[in-house]
Amino acid sequence: MTDGKKAIFITVRTGSTRLPKKALLDVAGIPALTYLIRRMKLSRQADKVVVCTTILPEDDVLVRLAEQEGVDHFRGSVEDKLARWQGAAKAHGVGFIVTADGDDLLCDPELIDMAFAQAEASGVDFLEAPGLACGAFTYGIRVSALDKVCEIKDTDETEMMWVYFKETGLFKVGALEGVDEIYKRPGVRMTLDYPEDYEFFKTVISHFEKRGGPYGLRDILAWLDQRPEVVAICSHLMTRFLENQAQKTHLKLKDK
After folding, report:
1. Counting beta carbons within 10 angstroms of the beta carbon of residue 130, is it exposed (0 to 12), middle (13 to 18) or buried (19 or more)?
2. What is the CATH number for 163?
3. 69-83 pLDDT, tens per residue?
4. Is the model's pTM score more than 0.90?
5. Cα dist. 92→40, 72, 79, 95 in Å?
6. What domain count does the chain have?
């Protein structure tokens, strides 16, 4: 069972070296962050959506976007997103979170709701979903486990935070269950990190927005299955992306 509210935490800041101010880039006439917030509000299980950003003045604009969309926000550590999440969870009475990176504009509410349901039924501390399209789902985290990680970690550099939940042997780790085959597209890259990623998102989102009517990630992936040239806009960046992540993955624990 979860203890406290269920929330989607959108982790975002304006600082970016590869694609400056990417959260503010125009996507179908609105900022990328606004688009993501609106997608996350489609969740039927989340009690709230919280934009988790930093205390830097440059991130004031992200807070304004959150307020314009009627969702909560929290401002915390610049580098340590685990501490930022912990502060947000305490401030908003949250017991279980599903994270949505500000880069992942097509993160799927259906998968997020599946994660909330599974967490409620299983008591899992950390949920992942390997083998899906990159950017479809990030992680589900029980706040009591997050508190423990913040207690034992010995660094503020926590961009690749999964290692603390999976490799310490302290937590119940699970994989998202019952995922439809349509989501299992590991060759599809949907995360906003490079200019080519921006071109991909503009192509996909503009198509569906012009088509009109509601659409979800199922619809997008089915469309992409018929358009390998669109997938190819940014799929070649996955190797560079994974190498960059590996360089940032470190487990640093306090001495017992």
Report:
1. exposed
2. 3.90.550.10
3. 999 999 999 999 999
4. yes
5. 17, 9, 21, 9
6. 1
How far apart are the two ends of the chain, measured CA to CA in Å?
A: 30
Give bridge partners of residue 99 from the DSSP assignment: 9, 139
The boundaries of the domain holding residue 141 are 5-247
Residues in the chain: 256
Residue 252, domain member (yes or no): no
- The one-letter amino acid code at 103 reads D
Is residue 25, in this structure, part of any structural domain at all?
yes
Strands (E) across the chain are located at: 5-11, 26-27, 30-31, 48-54, 72-76, 94-101, 126-128, 139-142, 173-175
Quick check: is 256 in a domain?
Answer: no
pLDDT digits (tens, 9 = 90+) for 174-203: 999 999 999 999 999 999 999 999 999 999
- Backbone phi and psi for residue 51, each to the nearest 5 degrees, phi listed first: -85, 115
